[in-house]
Amino acid sequence: MIRVLLVDDQDLFRAGVKVILDAQDGIEVVGDAADGLEGVRLVEELQPDVVLMDLRMPEMDGVEATRQVFLPDRVARRANPVRVVVLTTFDLDDRAATAIRHGASGFLLKDTTPAQLADAIRTVHAGNAVLSPGNLTNLLEHSLTTPTPPPKEFGTLTAKEKEVFDAVARGLSNAEIGAEVFASESTVKTHVGSILRKLGLRDRVQIVVFAYENGLLA
């Protein structure tokens, strides 16, 4: 069962999403909050698998709430990872890009369909993004961040890990990466885990962000 926390300042929206998600197989809404401050508290209390986080809220907005959810000391205390999907009313939202940099696994427009919403929750729960690397790159470019040289940690990757890093940044699946670098899916998974550990990243979404921000996308 995927445990979901809703964080949005509109009571009617939260109630509607709860009805939609509770009707889905394998998804359970375990709590809801009307602002980011309460949302951060409930993440620690309820330990959800996925948080649907509105960007614009009183007390604390979704960008700051996402940043606080992924503070290193809080992440270290959790038994299982928490994924955040931010909710916005329009595409190419600078706040969405910032939230993704803070650790969110992507964003959804608020007019998404119930099926798309459920699919997105299952996708991020599996450790993937809810938007393609190409769309993520467009979003990051829109936020006008100038790429910087890669940090020294990137130099600790082996030649094979750099191949896998590039393939992940381009949005390839483990099976596609295996075919490209002539390795089994389990070996690719091991390489991805090593890349995340060496670069201090949480998931594949953060690899795309890292690649963009450090000028490593071809």
TrEMBL record:
Domain (HTH luxR-type) ranges: 150-215
Which GO molecular function entries does the Swiss-Prot or TrEMBL record give? DNA binding
Q: Which GO terms describe its biological process?
A: phosphorelay signal transduction system; regulation of DNA-templated transcription
List the Pfam families hit by this protein, alphabetically.
GerE, Response_reg
Q: Which residues carry this modification: 4-aspartylphosphate?
A: D54
All copies of domain Response regulatory, residue ranges: 3-125
Sorted alphabetically, the keyword list is: DNA-binding, Phosphoprotein, Transcription, Transcription regulation
What PANTHER family does the annotation carry? TRANSCRIPTIONAL REGULATORY PROTEIN NARL-RELATED, TWO-COMPONENT RESPONSE REGULATOR
| Protein name as it appears in the record | LuxR family two component transcriptional regulator
Native source species: Kineococcus rhizosphaerae
Lineage, top ranks: Bacteria, Bacillati, Actinomycetota, Actinomycetes, Kineosporiales
